[in-house]
Design a protein that fits this description.
By secondary structure, the chain is of the alpha/beta class. The protein has 2 domains: about 250 residues, Aspartate Aminotransferase, domain 2 (3-Layer(aba) Sandwich), CATH 3.40.640; about 90 residues, Aspartate Aminotransferase, domain 1 (Alpha-Beta Complex), CATH 3.90.1150.10. The protein is built from 12 helices and 11 strands.
Length: about 350
């Protein structure tokens, strides 16, 4: 049975968080002499909003959750790290992952001295049946589910995620970095049912803002409060907040690009499937394809020599390359290059 108080590290419970100048004073003022900032106006001489209020208000409308259920950080990686630092006791608790999946979960676990337990996906890249996960039921720690999964591109049914969350004593973290490219419902819809659920999202993929490093976590307000307690005081810079808000308020461009990439994903799948050197193009609901070649290393090196860079995932999935869906012209060049190899 999940109880938040059972998984918060004692030192975090006892922690007195840093109180920034911008946190202590939130009213209107004409002269600000409280934060030791440079007083000469540069448009960036003042510290940013430490709690990204405008961003969260807009995200609240889009995601249909309360602002106090939203954490905004320096990429999703910051949220992952904070979850380890707040809810995992080093050398004691564990992190559970379902490989092949995003490698940063294990890296962050290692940084925080948390053991990673790997539970392989089924042969069709689906989550193991709940009966196969009995050993994790009474475990504290974090359990990561990437959906759509990186690098396989498939999504997991919400009922499978719910079954795991109901029995797991720690936090279940569902990483939805690619959810906008999928027709599946977001796990955010389960937040009111599951007190131990955390859902990650980002503006890096669908919104085309990877350079801003803006990631989000959605959870019960009690979980978000703990994350805000231990985050750096000004963890998201002013430019990222301003540009992120612009993108959220004007989604027409992003939605158009998402539609085009989904269409190109279908065309790319069909074209690659017809090439003799391609064994399998795995179904994907992300903005990339996982492709099995009969000589993946040869394809990888040959494409590199032509200035086309893809990701070699052979160590995770034998003979497979992960290829991001590009623009129509980029995809045309890619297809012709593979045909020529």
């Amino acid at each position: 049975m999940f109880k938040l108080e059972n998984i918060i590290r004692k030192n975090i419970i006892d922690l007195t968080p840093y109180s920034s100048a911008r946190e202590e004073f939130k009213e209107e003022a004409t002269i600000l002499l409280d934060a030791n900032e440079n007083p000469f106006e540069t448009a960036l001489n003042r510290y940013p909003d430490p709690f990204q209020t405008a961003l969260k208000n807009e995200l609240s409308i889009i995601k249909k959750v309360a602002p106090n259920q939203i954490f905004v950080g320096n990429g999703s990686d910051e949220a992952i790290d904070l979850l380890f630092r707040a809810f995992c006791e080093p050398g004691k608790d564990k992190s559970y992952v379902f490989p092949p999946t995003y490698g940063m979960y294990e890296v962050s676990a290692n940084i925080n001295n948390i053991e990673t337990v790997k539970i392989s996906l089924n042969s069709d890249f689906q989550l193991p049946h709940i009966n196969e996960l009995v050993n994790i039921v009474d475990s504290n720690g974090l359990l990561f589910i990437c959906s759509p999964n990186n690098p396989t591109g498939n999504v997991y049914p919400l009922n499978a995620i719910k079954e795991i969350a109901v029995v797991f004593s720690g936090l279940v973290v569902v990483d939805e970095a690619y959810i906008e490219f999928s027709s599946s419902e977001s796990a955010i819809s389960l937040l009111n049912e599951l007190p131990n659920l955390v859902v990650l999202n980002t503006l890096s993929k669908a919104y085309g803002l990877a350079g801003l490093r803006l990631g989000m976590a959605f959870a019960r307000k009690e979980v978000i409060a703990v994350m805000n307690k231990i985050k750096p005081p000004y963890n998201v810079n002013s430019i990222s907040q301003i540009e992120g808000l612009k993108a959220l308020k004007n989604t027409k461009k992003s939605l158009s690009q998402i539609d085009l990439l989904k269409s190109e994903r279908t065309l790319l799948t069909k074209a690659l499937s017809a090439i003799p050197s391609v064994i399998t193009v795995y179904p994907s609901e992300a903005n990339f394809l996982l492709i099995e070649f009969d000589q993946s290393d040869k394809i990888f090196v040959s494409l590199k020599s032509k200035g086309i860079i893809v990701r070699n995932r052979t160590k995770e999935v034998k003979n497979c390359l992960r290829i991001t869906v590009g623009t129509p012209e980029q995809n045309r060049i890619l297809i012709n290059a593979i045909k020529d190899i």
